[in-house]
Amino acid sequence: MPRHYDVIIAGGGIIGCAIAYYLRKHTEYTVLVIEKNRIGSEASSAAAGMLGAQAELNEAGPLYTMARESRSLFPELSRELKEISGIDIEFIDKGLFKAAKNKKERLRLQQLTDFHNDNGQPAEWISGSELLKMEPMLSKELEGAMYLPKDGQVNPSQLTKAFAQSAAKLGADFLDYTEAAGFEIGRSGIGIQTSAGMFFGEKAVLASGVWTGKLAAQTGLHMPLFPVKGECISLTFLEPVITSTVISDECYLVPKQGGRLVIGATMEAGTYDRKVRAKGVLELLTKAREVLPAIEQGEWEKAWTGFRPQTPDGLPYMGKHPYHKDLYIAAGHFRNGILLSPLTGRWMAELLIGNLQEERLKEFAPDRFAYEKMKG
Amino acid sequence: MPRHYDVIIAGGGIIGCAIAYYLRKHTEYTVLVIEKNRIGSEASSAAAGMLGAQAELNEAGPLYTMARESRSLFPELSRELKEISGIDIEFIDKGLFKAAKNKKERLRLQQLTDFHNDNGQPAEWISGSELLKMEPMLSKELEGAMYLPKDGQVNPSQLTKAFAQSAAKLGADFLDYTEAAGFEIGRSGIGIQTSAGMFFGEKAVLASGVWTGKLAAQTGLHMPLFPVKGECISLTFLEPVITSTVISDECYLVPKQGGRLVIGATMEAGTYDRKVRAKGVLELLTKAREVLPAIEQGEWEKAWTGFRPQTPDGLPYMGKHPYHKDLYIAAGHFRNGILLSPLTGRWMAELLIGNLQEERLKEFAPDRFAYEKMKG
Amino acid sequence: MPRHYDVIIAGGGIIGCAIAYYLRKHTEYTVLVIEKNRIGSEASSAAAGMLGAQAELNEAGPLYTMARESRSLFPELSRELKEISGIDIEFIDKGLFKAAKNKKERLRLQQLTDFHNDNGQPAEWISGSELLKMEPMLSKELEGAMYLPKDGQVNPSQLTKAFAQSAAKLGADFLDYTEAAGFEIGRSGIGIQTSAGMFFGEKAVLASGVWTGKLAAQTGLHMPLFPVKGECISLTFLEPVITSTVISDECYLVPKQGGRLVIGATMEAGTYDRKVRAKGVLELLTKAREVLPAIEQGEWEKAWTGFRPQTPDGLPYMGKHPYHKDLYIAAGHFRNGILLSPLTGRWMAELLIGNLQEERLKEFAPDRFAYEKMKG
Amino acid sequence: MPRHYDVIIAGGGIIGCAIAYYLRKHTEYTVLVIEKNRIGSEASSAAAGMLGAQAELNEAGPLYTMARESRSLFPELSRELKEISGIDIEFIDKGLFKAAKNKKERLRLQQLTDFHNDNGQPAEWISGSELLKMEPMLSKELEGAMYLPKDGQVNPSQLTKAFAQSAAKLGADFLDYTEAAGFEIGRSGIGIQTSAGMFFGEKAVLASGVWTGKLAAQTGLHMPLFPVKGECISLTFLEPVITSTVISDECYLVPKQGGRLVIGATMEAGTYDRKVRAKGVLELLTKAREVLPAIEQGEWEKAWTGFRPQTPDGLPYMGKHPYHKDLYIAAGHFRNGILLSPLTGRWMAELLIGNLQEERLKEFAPDRFAYEKMKG
């Protein structure tokens, strides 16, 4: 394994792997991805894989725009990654329902329907009885649902693996179980100290999810990131009980290939505790039963946790390091890392190549909470 | 492995292993245990291990008497099995609480307290405030509890393994993953057809839990047995949250070594479905939280099912086969197999040896539901 | 769930599920599949999924012909099942190498190459150096390999699940954890006793793999079937180490999606022992390393066993029961159940419908080892 | 949870938990253990649990002396921890054989036997035929073995858990999934920054195994520590195949409760790679089969890795921090952490209390490789 690369990416989650993929797809840059754990082992594999470009975002702005654009890349990406790596990312294009359990929720969702339509995005209000025709196992108590036909879903572990193996096939190197422990920033290029020795990159990207804040601090940048723990569970059924994703009251039910149903996710800020608590299991099952009573007959499969990387304003950090010209940052995608990964990968690759103006990403600037800026 | 034995036991669950152990402990009989699956893999390892001689039995009768006698064997047995096999059965002697959540339950439990005392068994009514002194994490809403100081608990998998390995050490043979498929009953001795060929026993014992009914049918005996499925879950805690077993409303919480808490068990008759259903998980967690709110902070460990072997009158079958003099039966211990295993093993060994009068076990006669007897 | 069906299939492995699928695809017959365990839990999920129509069969005859025809169904089937059930069966069409480690093996494989060509099937001898160009990680010691470009592979668990869920979607019923315990064969139709009560089928199919022999015996038919235990292991790699399946010396290496490598399989006849033995692990790893030294760096994933249903002459049983006109049999596919499943499903469906002459399946007649025939 | 403690221990492995236990046993100090992962999750639970005070140490010196003294604490400790926490540490006192496969090994082991005897330690040379009487399943090819009757074994996970839960019961606090990220060292006391906020200790102990080097570096101390990866596997048997631990050629076989056999361990320096490689599995099984052919019949259970914390001279670091009077260090126990844990815990507790002279631990001084000292 060489010690010198054109680009070194610190972080082998979905963001780091997507960047490696787009870099190798478009350039001959030598690329190394360094991951302290297993590739795709943290938030990237804990996610449920919803592509909730509309479902997760309720107001106009740069993230809403980015999300829709990133979502539009999946149909082609799905074919492309299958072709290169042989991996099926299980892209499912069956839309998403946000269900209303009472009048108050109905009114809010009807407003949201208008909002999406006003922004030129498809969204439709579905009455309770229509909803039962489309998803007959849902609760008869529901008042209806907002239907978002374009919000699909993928298998996030498969997507991360497909990015990684496609990048590898196209020539990227991967080094797992190796921690980026420190940086030596010279006039040109970046030295990265790791448990496997020193590596040198002409450029380097910090893409370590919630742990990127610590790395940034080592380079003198205050870039706040904090973990929001989420617990998920999965059930299996002999036959699928729903066809589209259903969201209600912060609880989502995502039907996966082969009769699996992923139910997520609790929210707890500020902790790195990996335990699935009984409280979380109870909360998820109780909420899920309200919209889909049939979950009672589902077979328990498993439960797990992950840590979403949250930023103060809810926008990810993407761009150049303010103080070190060869250092780049892509982190903080919170609940939307899977959805945003293709476009993040593409933008960061273009930025590294020099084909994208930094200005284009100004709302996502990594230094927007830097002390100097805050003062200034 | 020989083909001829003094005693062949069909069934390597806790009952079969206990019989093998007591046989080898007291005689030089050659003994073979045949198990179609893994040793101790069914109800024996699904149980929570309560020794609820009083908690599970609310009326005087042969089972109440047997249960207490069997319970009294555990302290000595625990030492004995550790000595022979090196296995710790995790016998815990900290008593059991049956908690009352309301006045009605309180009155019923106070009556039960009197019942046990009237029968010369220790039982004590504990008020809500006293209870919180003894188990401070229990719900403050409880009206109190009946305390049964003698109802301890063990680790049922360890107990089954300890019976098996002690028996093996004393000379018994074990053949796992081998099904007893049919019987050839001669004038003397029993031929047992298995997937590993034919074995001959001077005597044979059917001890296959809920599957014994089918074997009995093959020998012409109608001996009804049906499965009662139970789902259990376990949580873990950095520090134990209760010291004694707590039962409330058909839900029991059994504190195990090292901070594990086993919560059981749902009841569903007539099915062999091994699936843990979401409904069962919800029910167990909901009931457990009512008595012990601290379970919310417990870490999810796992969930499993087992099939209790139920009989029409709730008493196990123990004794000789009515039509074949060399055939014996021990099965149908329902929720009390762990508790009753030592005495069942001892009695069956003595019956096989000829030291116990069949009359002694008349309430447990295997033919008490035989068609002929029923006709009368 | 109804009690009366047009066709009841006893056995929810790959054969039973394939029959159910083709029945529902082509008819309006009501269909019930009864499975004593979990759907697809035995040999169907233990297999490696090679479609070795040529690799596994070295002589002309009905099986060779059937295998090639069945293999040819996979490309279309793969699309069809994905469309109906959403499940990707991971069909990979990259051919298969049978490698020669020495001159003797080389000569034998060169003869086999001629045999396949003589039978109009593609096969090519690849020299050692050419082989390394196609699969660079293979051992430099190999003398070459026979290349079979048409022998692909699938994921057998996914295929079974896809058959089952597609059948279910098309209207078939499934009942798992329910054992077919006995038959009541009337003048018309079949009664099947199960742990969930009695079910009646106008016709019934026995498709329970190696356990079908026992069911057949209950219907008066001697149809010998015996288990051949196989142990398999799997390793994972960051990047795939081979592209095509490689076979050498009874050991096969099957590269799966995402960097998994399945290595199989030991052979042990006559046992139902589910244990993976250290001996098997050693044998598989040692043999695999001889052809592919790079397996040393593979990450251990897991090990498992399965029981191939073997018949005395190596041909499966497919056809009508000799004594009961409404009873059908499909079992005994040995190492080729995955490969043969589509055509078995199709043929059996056609036979049940009445579109296939029994004569067509005469080499596979279920009664070819019946005592009468043997005498006769 | 308070923010201020008398002693804060960074590291919840066996060393940290042992220190917490002895501190609470002997003082009223408030104690907090901070662990970045799960309690006892790293080397502490990966170890096989041999107490090889003689087997692992072949020369006189401070470690040899310490090891014997620590070993002598186990019989009493075993009872004490069971009493307090209810946890059985599975202490087995059946000695250990170091087996010779050829003449050269025999001569070396006979010399070692003399060495131990010369140092007043029991050791005996056992001929091949005698050895087979004591352990009949061992290979008939062995030339004999050195028998060390005092080198017992424990279950390391249980021991760590027992230290932790006993400490907790005696009043220590534990905070898991919390990383000690930095230190603020004032004139008196230590501030520890963690992901759960700042904690203040009058004194603090660094006891984070191989990760202690990095923490020490943050406090200005060069204290080299590097990981030596080890892979282990376990098999299970219906009946135990050996009674005592057997070591041969760097491979050890440790018989655990209930028929488990742990086989360890490979050695690979300088990596944090957690993967169990096929190479390691092959090596362990091959070596183990040479001494104990019966392992072939063992059932595969699982495989795992751990990282032993190695120091340049093989001695652990125990003592005070050279530059900060309230900071203490206990780490680097390499292959002997389980064995040395009781005495390390006791000594460190005494040092913290002020009952042990620093001089007593001078060979283990944490600053013996500090740059200043090295310069001289």
Automatic annotation (TrEMBL), chains A, B, C, D:
Keywords, alphabetical: Membrane, Oxidoreductase, Thiamine biosynthesis, Transmembrane, Transmembrane helix
Enzyme Commission (EC) number: 1.4.3.19
GO CC annotation: cytoplasm
Reaction catalysis annotation: glycine + O2 + H2O = glyoxylate + H2O2 + NH4(+)
SUPFAM superfamilies, A to Z: FAD-linked reductases, C-terminal domain (SSF54373), FAD/NAD(P)-binding domain (SSF51905)
Highest rank taxon of the organism: Bacteria
GO molecular function terms listed in the Swiss-Prot or TrEMBL record: flavin adenine dinucleotide binding; glycine oxidase activity
GO biological process terms held by the UniProt record: thiamine biosynthetic process
Transmembrane annotation, as ranges: 7-23
Pathway: Cofactor biosynthesis; thiamine diphosphate biosynthesis
Protein known as: glycine oxidase
Lineage: Bacteria, Bacillati, Bacillota, Bacilli, Bacillales
